[in-house]
Design the sequence.
């Protein structure tokens, strides 16, 4: 072999080594060549957390993973920036699907993904309708307790009241005019906040410093921030449901009118329309993980995922006279009163 040939081979080897090393370093650093954009870009990824286990995961209609019995999550980190359709399926369950935008050097975390069973039949628990009963203290007895507060006077004709920190809020009948009064417990000074409210208005549960005032006759909801003394929400509302995550700072309610379902965040003052239908919506119910809502309309039980973009929506069951839905603590079963064929009573439906 001539000296010239050996030099060519030596230089070729060095160039090959440099190119392979550069490619390896680039690949290890998470960069890939984007053929559509003709440039190197850093990868992004997707993390999925789901139930049940043993599911099929598709990315752009290509099977990417068959998860095992012990797997309830999936992670992929070598995706070029762009949009991907993610689909999760399992035999006997409704599929979950979403369009995800992947960005450079970022991982999209999608948690609390639930696949619900389909085509399951309820079983009769008892041939009696069961209605949830709540222990309530007489409003008159509570109002009488106000009189025990030293220094508090002129509390006649009080329809309802609520104590928030060092303030007392009264719904009071003043010469057939119904007003909302604020009383400072330090000096017992009074201030009229609203001077023309409905006689059927009552206080609903609300965390401090908010007041929830509901006209139970016309279903008019009013939310007041007692710190700023501003009305932050006015809307038609039935079935007002709080999340039970108040201690973690999640101040959200779900409510509906006859044809719409909303979720309202008190801290961000954002109201999001979840669904709208031409049929009357009878009931709503939080799923225990608070990322889904059950709702009843047209004698069907439905569940919808709460997301800002497209929503996964499924009909779990259709029957007759469905009402009084409730859900197990694990979120794996729902119970409802209704009629199926000749059977009338309380039914149980397995959904996970």
Sequence:
């Amino acid at each position: 072999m001539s000296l010239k040939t050996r030099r060519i081979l030596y230089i070729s080897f060095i160039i090959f080594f440099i190119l392979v090393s550069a490619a390896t370093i680039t690949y290890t650093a998470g960069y890939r060549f984007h053929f559509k954009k003709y440039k190197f870009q850093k990868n992004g990824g997707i993390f999925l957390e789901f139930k049940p286990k043993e599911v099929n995961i598709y990315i752009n209609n290509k099977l990417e993973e068959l998860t095992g019995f012990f797997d309830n999550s999936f992670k992929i980190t070598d995706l070029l920036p762009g949009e991907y359709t993610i689909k999760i399926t399992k035999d006997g369950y409704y599929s979950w699907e979403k369009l995800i935008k992947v960005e450079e050097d970022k991982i999209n975390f999608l948690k609390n993904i639930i696949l619900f069973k389909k085509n399951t039949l309820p079983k009769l628990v008892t041939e009696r309708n069961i209605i949830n009963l709540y222990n309530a203290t007489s409003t008159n007895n509570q109002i009488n307790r106000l009189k025990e507060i030293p220094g508090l006077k002129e509390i006649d004709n009080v329809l309802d009241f609520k104590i928030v920190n060092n303030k007392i809020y009264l719904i009071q009948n003043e010469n057939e005019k119904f007003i909302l009064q604020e009383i400072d417990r330090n000096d017992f000074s009074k201030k009229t906040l609203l001077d023309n409210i409905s006689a059927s208005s009552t206080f609903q549960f609300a965390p401090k410093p908010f007041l929830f005032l509901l006209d139970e006759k016309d279903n008019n909801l009013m939310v007041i921030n007692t710190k700023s003394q501003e009305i932050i929400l006015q809307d038609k509302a039935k079935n007002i449901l709080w999340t039970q995550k108040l201690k973690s700072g999640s101040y959200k309610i779900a409510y509906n009118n006859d044809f719409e379902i909303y979720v309202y965040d008190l801290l961000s003052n954002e109201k999001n329309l979840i669904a709208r239908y031409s049929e009357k919506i009878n009931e709503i119910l939080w799923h225990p993980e608070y990322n889904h809502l059950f709702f009843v309309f047209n004698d069907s039980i439905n569940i919808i995922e709460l997301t800002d973009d497209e929503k996964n929506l499924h009909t779990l069951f259709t029957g007759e006279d469905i009402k009084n839905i409730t859900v197990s603590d694990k979120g794996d079963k729902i119970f409802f009163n209704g009629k199926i064929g000749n059977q009338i009573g309380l039914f149980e439906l397995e959904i996970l």
